[in-house]
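Let's do one together. I've listed all components of the complex below, 848 residues spread over two lines.
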Amino acid sequence: MRTILQALSLLLFSLLLFFATYKLPDWFPADIYLRLDPLLGLNAIFAAREMIGRALWGLVTIGATLLIGRFFCAYVCPMGASIDFLHLLFFRKKKRSNLKTESSFRKVKYFLLIVFITAALAGLSLAFFMDPIALLTRFYTFFLYPLSITLVNLFLDVLRPLSKALGWVSLSHLHYFQPVFYMSAITLLIFGGIIALNLIAPRFWCRYLCPLGAMLSLISPLGIFKRKVSEECNECMKCQKNCPMGAIPEDPTKTRLRECIQCRTCVQVCPQNAVTFPATLSIGGEYSKIDFSRRGFIYSMAGGLGAGFLALQTPYTLRQSKFQLLRAPGAIPETEFLRTCIRCGECMKSCLTNTLQPCLWESGFSGLWTPKMDLRLAPCDQNCNVCGKVCPTQAIRSVSLEEKNHAKVGTAILLKEKCLVWAQNKICLICDEICPYNAIVFRPIEGYRRPVVIASKCNGCGFCEQRCPVLGESAIVVVPDGEIRLKEGSYVKEAKKLQLEFKADPGDDKFILEESGFKIESGKKYEKNPQPQKPKGFLQ
Amino acid sequence: MSKCKKEMTRRTFLKTVMAGATLALSGNPPLLQAKEEYDLVVISGEPAAATKKALETLGGISRFVKKGHRIVLKPNMSFARTPEFGATTHPMVVATVAEACIQAGARQVLILDHTLHRAELCLERSGIREACKNISGAHVIAFQERKFFKEIKIPQGKILDRVEVIQEALESDVLINIPVAKSHSATGVSLGIKGLMGLIWDRESFHSRLNINQALADLATVIKPQLTILDASRALTSGGPGGPGEVKKLNLIIAGTDPVAVDSYGVTITPWYGRSFKGRQVEHLLIAHQRGLGKIDTDQLKIYKGTT
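Okay, and this is what the predicted structure of the assembly comes out as:
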């Protein structure tokens, strides 16, 4: 029963992430798991010092825990499910002779929770580092998702001769876009480490480390369902040995209510059928105290503040405008963005073109795993606004396509020494050809027609940078200069105010007429009779 | 489908009375020789009807497409733009040709392009996938993976000696090029021959390493569509090839077997960037003509002009 619910939850989590991509309908809450996570919500609200609508979904989890207890970890948490299933796969046969049920290590998760909350109060979003939902979303995004695409394509390749022979036209040409990410390896190592910890104890992560579990365990004894052991108990200690959370102390009739996740393993293993989970209003006993010293409390608060200080007082953050990265269109102003972003990676998963990539150290410790645009790798498509739709804390605002296309992320700058036309008089037009906004025009300069960027028409989508045929760094690069980042209000209005115009409509290209004068590059015979009025490409 | 067939046979009948042929002879060489006298067919009208008429006037698609053939149609669907931008071939033109091919007995019609924008967006926004989805045997595919391309040699290549081409296009029985008429900021215009660049893998080198006009002529020596149908229902007369730019509604379909002739005529149908030009003024067409790939002077062509 529990395994089925866990599997369903994991499946739902995977499906939601699978659907988080281009053409996501507005009503579809692909980020619901992240919204339901109260730790991420609290972290974002504290760090941003702002109410975040979507984060209020966390109250659902809090309410359910208050009512039922810490069931989330056993039935809902996709990380818990992954740990359980992989445990079955790898560590089932491992013998654990002397697993101590009492462990001062248990405290660690509370310390971590305090560190994260304090850091958030100091203005640093840090909970992402160990929050199970954010962690798993990252693992899926940066590792499982690209891997599964690779496998599917491999399968299609293997199948291709057969599908060709059988005349399955669509299948024989099917190929899925392969997403790639920086930091895939780091993400895998972290997830692998968490699974490997099961070597030491089952659900090691959940017992000792998980800050979300710690948060829920603070209130779990209030839930009405509690483990009860009848007098049939013959103290065989089977329940204690099998409890995945180590929630049963030396006296098997007692329960550490904060640790108990109501998985009911003890009910199943009890030979006497002595264990039940009846509804009761009592609020735990001696085993339900948080074993937590005042000293530890203060140390971890200091740790959180220290982390906040270390991460925030760096050249990266003090000189933010000089180090700025290109963020997704609709990202709120950088300081607020860093505080609000919970680094789940959902935006990067949903990105249609794969331009959104995780940062390692590009904006310091406070910018770990935040999304940046890598426009040399891929552009931002003007028909897609999914990244905002799936952002659980709205660090990237969910806006309409028109608004999104006015959320200028930067401005293209032409590097004349590298440009084939400027530096070598070659016949290249790719940046102009691909620009969706006509922000690149050719003007007659020194007898040749050369590309020029019209800054007021460029919204930084990066098609030019990605397509530039120059090897290595592009001859036309988008820099954050001129970006429009608003916490609230309309990008369209702001762009109007700044006299910018990002129009993808046909029919606004009159300026070409006046400016289409140049002579042809190739062949000397044309240079003899320069016809400055002739558009590029035509001969005499 | 049946309606279309009826119309075709009626027209074919009317036109074949003089030749004393019967309907059953519509695939017969003696009959077709009368039609082949036209170098070019220029039809004015709505995209679908004009395309249909153009095919009939040329002697019917069955002149090119035989039973069991595998056909490749190469429209321009390189940009994720709706048809009104004029950057992509009109979906109804593509669908009409695809349907005619299937009716003529084609086993399979592949409608393909190497798209510049993301493939699924191009298929979706150009409207071509939607227009062709009910034609059984027709498949709209965008290629963005090198594994679907195959390298061929260009024996007559001056600057391009080998090129990677979409394999399906190489293996097809008939290749029909269905470009859209648009301006182009490097080659002046982008019509049929320029549209062939949509069949190759490495387009970048045409702009960086090579002279694009020479390279296009080289490419045209190995990729020879049996039929070129230029969609000038709309022409992107400035801002091409990607737009946005000025779009003129010309309502023309120009079809012919000589790729240079079709393009040369296409140059003359409307001013580009506000000025009128001739085929000889487009460098890649001139080079192609000089290398014997087709006729360039439109006054020497036998042109059928009609309306739907």
